[in-house]
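Subject: for your reference before the review

Hello V.,

The reviewers asked for a structural picture of the protein, and I figured it would be easier to keep everything in one thread rather than splitting it across files. Below is the amino acid sequence we used in the manuscript, unchanged from the supplementary table.
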Amino acid sequence: MSYRTNPRLSYPIYCGADPEILSLARENRKQMTLAEIKLWKLLRRKNILGMKFRRQHPLSMFIADFYCHQAKLIIEIDGGYHDDQNQKESDLGRQQALEDMGLLVIRFRNEEIEMDVEGVLDRISKILKERVLTNPIPTEPLLRGGPHPPNPLNQEGKGE
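And here is what came back from the structure prediction:
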């Protein structure tokens, strides 16, 4: 599948990601860390409060480890290399850019997931409840461009 002309990239859920980022995200899904795999098994299939999560999801020029569009929530899993000062500065800049788009970024260390996954899930559930169930987030697009493109099957005489 070629991502150069993929119409999905215009959807607000991708925040204007370019084809290269989409391709890289696809590759990242094949190379997840053990902590990411463990958390993904618990997040997938709407296991937490019925919320859908995506893994290695492209957003603008970034790739989120996990993303829940309904809650505008990004979950990042940090390994040891995130202790490096240059990486910390890069992470902060990236987080600020994502927060400027109206997204909330929460971080967990690999060790937290490996040693206390229930605590991690409790924290995620609490944030989801606050962001979606208690204070619903408006569903308007994150960036310019309006709502999803029209469905071509809903033209006159076709579809619904």
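For the response letter, the relevant points are probably these. The first strand starts at residue 54 and ends at 59. The helical segments are 19-29, 34-43, 85-100, 110-115, 117-134.

Happy to draft the paragraph if you're swamped.

O.
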